[in-house]
Write a structure and sequence with these properties.
Largest sheet of chain A: 7 strands, mixed
Low-confidence stretches of chain A: 282-288
Radius of gyration of chain B: 27 Å
Oligomer: heterodimer
Structural class of chain B: alpha+beta
Largest sheet of chain B: 8 strands, antiparallel
Number of domains of chain A: 3
Strand order of the largest sheet of chain A: 1-2-3-4-5-7-6
CATH class of the largest domain in chain B: Alpha Beta
Helix content of chain A: 40-55%
Distance between the termini of chain A: 40 Å
Number of helices of chain A: 13
CATH architecture of the largest domain in chain A: Alpha-Beta Barrel
CATH class of the largest domain in chain A: Alpha Beta
Low-confidence stretches of chain B: none
CATH topology of the largest domain in chain B: Rossmann fold
Number of strands of chain B: 33
Largest interface: A-B, 51 and 29 residues
Strand content of chain A: 15-25%
Number of strands of chain A: 13
CATH superfamily of the largest domain in chain B: P-loop containing nucleotide triphosphate hydrolases
Number of helices of chain B: 13
Strand order of the largest sheet of chain B: 11-10-16-7-8-15-12-13
Order of helices and strands of chain A: EHEHEHHEHEHHEEHEEHEHEHEEHH
Structural class of chain A: alpha/beta
Shape of chain B: globular
Shape of chain A: globular
Helix content of chain B: 25-40%
Radius of gyration of chain A: 21 Å
CATH topology of the largest domain in chain A: TIM Barrel
CATH architecture of the largest domain in chain B: 3-Layer(aba) Sandwich
């Protein structure tokens, strides 16, 4: 179905949802199918998101022998009260066992995922979770500040005023504490929510989303991107299956990005990373023209300690990463 | 001519004038059910929504009276707001009598009295009509007492009706026929027609509404406007039924329209006299006044690209509003715009609303100002209605501001609160009357500048809706004035500058700073807002920055959503005004204009 569209793949990512619910046999079927259908480079990175409950030592070993070389573990927290507030099946004990099982199975590249900034959480208890995580010296840590979406269980509580979000100044406190703690431990804060022990241990796969690298998403709701075009599969499993059985691409909708849209995306995605964005004449950026309103905005942002500007590259500071959305908007406005 | 009656309905706002007009029109069979819309005379949307008449209109009603004769009743509708009192006076000068409409529940109010005085000035026959007798709160006996004691009219000459339910309408029509005098005048004398309204028609140019006092006019005549001396050839004359109804001629006593190739309504002065060029009347009719705006404000487009469109819209709008004035203006903070003159705050509201609604423009208004008089040491006197032109304070010998004489009516128990309000608004020399037990008529001299903010709203609030208000311009009085500037992060927002009374400066500055603080969204850096008189900072407020807004996750499926949000926000930001690096929303400008509601 996708023959000839993509040259080769150097990363494969099983995620979005809980793929560790699949048995090794089922995973094998998928991997075999992928290998038959697509060219996969020899140095590929293959990641699977796993729920700590699922990662028994036997399952970890199976994953390893299936060729997975990177694990993303949804730890969320080492605080049992918080885990139950978040509705997680596992406990802190289970989470720690999962990390040990991964190590034992020979995984060298393990990423731990956390949620922070939960209404009842204190910065102290969050720091305790972080130091426990650091004690395992994982190669990668993702720390996602809690986002409460409308029409989710937490969203409904918030709507009824039964839950109060912590407010931007406390959110900022959490964000900075996270960054500082992990920086002290030698981790690189390379994206808003992502930290790597070493530059080479950044998630190769996720970076593709931020660089407009071509990617193919398989499964319901999955997004794909190729040569300025983005498409996404049916959300509804029913429609998805119907198209698949009819040997059709299960595409719900697509968009072809204009140059301006590509630049807008490059801008806000770039400003989410410590790498930043390059100022280019083509997108209306002129480095040394003080009459340009961009210059005035840049100066203001530099003075406020939110960005740095060196050899034509605008990079957010840690403080700037915290307001990445507004940074993007203020620069976009001058374009 | 003895079968013609020219009359108007006068009333305090909301006493049911338009509804009664509709009933009369309906009863005379001018409109059938199919064409009948409530409040036919109020044709503009805004008039319909606000329940007030903004422009005068006239309609001719053929009525067969009980005596078997057919009469021509010309109903001249008048604007119902103090901003338009000159137009009202010209409409009344075109009548022989009025129906003075009084709400049976609310009784006599400030404009009832003001309108009565105006009708008396024109020696009109007055028929009091008590309306809304169907209301549960109606108190006809009390209103009759008020008609006697407060208006000095014979209460037993009053009629009763419910315009809403259509009762008492025929009695009113009979009273118009039998109690109002027929017009006097001579068709053979030189033409003498009083212009009481003009409106613009995109096909025919200006349609002039007038009352003929003497003479005759027919198509082909060359007419002359006596005040500006311009001459035009008449294309059509006629009267209004529901639409224009052309006729051979209009003669003394008639009310009708003239179409004569006049391009815009600004070429016509309300109150001017039309005569024939070849056989003119020696002098124009008395009572003419040039309409002068008293409130001024600048209008800027939110998006500077819309400037041309704003210019075109103002030009179009002006076609139909002779009282509105505008000229180019520019602001360092807001770019190109226009300085506009209005008859009052209601007029300003109407213009703003029509520009936004009919012309689909998003605009920002500067703080309204009255016209101040400043005399410099050099002896030069300047009239200043734009803070940008306020002279250097050291050069000022005397500064003066316009005062009005305000007349208020309200139940006695609100006396303390109203007195306090008037004092706060720098009211002077109060005169109190008790026209009736329990009711107060209070007359205060007040600076116009204090009234144009929200005086009337406040009066209504503190009197729980029972207070009414009317005013006339009085004179200029000496007043220590200062120029208050508002600075956002050190940059002056000139559209927020205002000329203020020295003792009010701090209060106004604080109000502006607080309002801006509420309305300007927090941004990535601290925003300092200051109120300054010269280099002296008299008030300040600070908007603390927000520190965290970034979305936690941004992977495959999140990117499109995020981009769309940004594109939308970028558009929204275009509708804000950038002052330095601070984006100020339209609502912030509006909030500063409004006085505090505390």
């Amino acid at each position: 179905m996708y023959e000839g569209m993509f040259e080769s793949f150097d990363t494969i990512y099983f995620g979005g949802g809980t793929p560790s619910i699949l048995s090794p046999r089922e995973l094998e079927t998928i991997i075999t199918a992928l290998r038959n259908a697509f060219a996969i480079t020899p140095d590929f990175e293959m990641t699977i998101e796993t729920n700590p409950c699922d990662l028994t030592s036997g399952y970890a070993e199976s994953l390893r022998s299936l060729g997975f070389n990177r694990l993303s573990l949804g730890i969320q927290s080492f605080d049992n009260a918080l885990l139950s507030f978040l509705g997680r099946r596992h406990t802190s004990r289970v989470a720690e066992d999962a990390i040990i099982n991964a190590e034992k199975a020979g995984f060298e590249n393990v990423g731990l995922d956390f949620i922070y900034g939960v209404p009842s959480q204190s910065i102290i208890s969050w720091k305790e979770t972080l130091s426990k995580a650091l004690s395992y010296s994982p190669s990668h840590i993702s720390c996602y500040q809690l986002t409460i979406e409308d029409a989710t269980p937490l969203g409904l509580l918030r709507e009824k005023s039964l839950l109060h979000t912590i407010g931007d100044s406390l959110e900022y406190g959490f964000f900075m504490a996270t960054s500082r703690t992990l920086d002290d431990a030698g981790y690189i804060h390379y994206e808003v929510s992502n930290f790597a022990k070493h530059p080479l241990l950044r998630s190769r796969h996720n970076e593709k989303y931020w660089n407009h690298t071509p990617y193919l998403g398989l499964g319901p709701s999955a997004h794909s991107f190729l040569q300025g075009r983005r498409w996404w599969n049916h959300r509804s499993l029913h429609n998805y299956m119907k198209d698949i059985l009819a040997q059709k691409k299960p595409v719900e909708d697509d968009e072809t990005l204009t140059m301006e849209q590509l630049e807008t995306e490059a801008l806000f995605l770039g400003l989410r990373t410590s790498r930043g964005i390059e100022l280019k004449e083509s997108c209306g950026f002129y480095k040394d023209d003080p009459s340009n309103s961009l210059s005035a905005v840049l100066k203001k942002l530099i003075d406020a300690g939110l960005i740095t500007l060196e050899s034509g590259i605008v990079a957010p500071t840690i403080k700037g990463l915290a307001v990445g959305d507004s940074l993007a908007l203020s620069l976009l406005h001058t374009m | 001519m003895d079968r013609i009656r020219n009359f108007s309905i006068i009333a305090h706002i909301d006493h049911g004038k338009s509804t009664l007009a509709d009933r009369l029109i309906q009863h005379c069979g001018v409109s059938d059910e199919r064409t009948f819309r409530n409040q036919i005379l109020d044709t503009m949307d805004i008039e319909r929504e606000r329940g007030i008449t903004i422009k005068s209109q006239a309609i001719t009603l053929p009525y067969t009276a009980k005596d078997g004769h057919e009469y021509i009743l010309n109903l001249i509708d008048t604007p119902g707001h103090v901003d338009f009192s000159y137009e009202v006076s010209r409409a009344l000068a075109s009548c022989e009598g009025v129906l003075l409409l009084i709400d049976a529940a609310q009784g006599v109010q400030a404009q009832t009295v003001a309108n009565l005085y105006m009708a008396m000035e024109h020696n009109l026959e007055i028929i009091p009509v008590i309306n809304k007798i169907d209301l549960p709160a109606a108190d006809v006996n009390r209103v009759m007492e008020q008609i006697d004691s407060e208006l000095g009219l014979d209460p037993y000459a009053s009629l009763r009706c419910s315009a809403k339910e259509g009762t008492g309408i025929e009695d009113i029509l009979e009273a118009i026929v039998h109690r109002l005098p027929s017009p006097t005048g001579t068709p053979d004398k030189p033409l003498s027609a009083l212009i009481f309204d003009a409106k613009y028609d995109s096909f025919r140019g200006t349609i002039i509404n007038c009352r003929l006092l003497d003479g005759t006019v027919r198509s082909g005549d060359i007419i002359r406007f006596m005040h500006n001396g311009e001459t035009y050839k008449v294309e059509e004359v006629g009267h209004f039924l529901l639409a224009r109804h052309p006729m051979e001629s209009l003669s003394a006593g008639a009310v009708g329209y003239i179409i004569a190739g006049v391009k815009t309504v600004s070429d016509v002065n309300i109150g001017d006299t039309i005569t024939l060029d070849r056989n003119p009347r020696p002098q124009p009719l008395p009572g003419f006044r040039e309409i002068k705006p008293v409130v001024f404000a600048s209008i800027y487009p939110i998006a500077s690209d819309d400037y041309e469109e704003l210019a075109v819209s103002l030009e179009k709008y002006k076609l139909n509003d002779a009282a509105f004035t505008y000229q180019k203006d520019s602001s360092a903070a807001l770019g190109q715009g226009f300085r506009c003159g209005f008859l009052g705050l209601l007029h300003l509201d109407i213009v703003q609303e029509r520009l936004e609604r009919e012309y689909d423009l998003s605009i920002i208004l500067s703080v309204p100002s009255v016209r101040y008089r400043v005399t410099l040491h050099s002896g030069e006197t300047m009239m200043i209605d734009n803070p940008i032109h306020f002279p250097n304070p050291v050069a000022i010998e005397v500064s003066e501001e316009p005062y009005i004489r305000a007349t208020m009516f309200f139940p006695e128990k609100y006396m303390g609160a109203v007195m306090k309000l008037c004092r706060e608004k720098r009211g002077e020399t109060p005169v109190v009357h008790y026209p009736n037990p329990g009711r107060v008529e209070l007359v205060f001299d007040m600076p116009l500048a204090e009234v144009i903010t929200d005086f009337y709203d406040k009066l209504k609030t503190i009197t729980q809706g029972y207070g009414s208000f009317d005013y006339e311009l009085a004179d200029y009085r000496e007043s220590p004035l200062a120029l208050l500037d508002i600075l956002v992060n050190g940059e002056k927002v000139d559209a927020l500058s205002q000329i203020v009374h020295r003792i009010k400066a701090r209060e106004r500055a604080l109000h502006a700073c607080e309002r801006l603080k509420e309305e300007i969204p927090r941004q990535m850096f601290k925003i300092a807002i200051q109120g300054a008189i010269g280099s002296e900072i008299v008030a300040r407020s600070t908007i603390s920055p927000f520190r965290k807004d970034v979305t936690a996750k941004c992977y495959g499926g999140d990117i499109t959503r995020k981009r769309k949000l940004l594109e939308k926000q970028k558009k929204g930001k275009k509708r804000m005004k950038m002052v330095g690096s601070v984006s100020i929303p339209q609502s912030a400008f509006i909030a500063v204009l409004k006085s505090d509601e505390s």
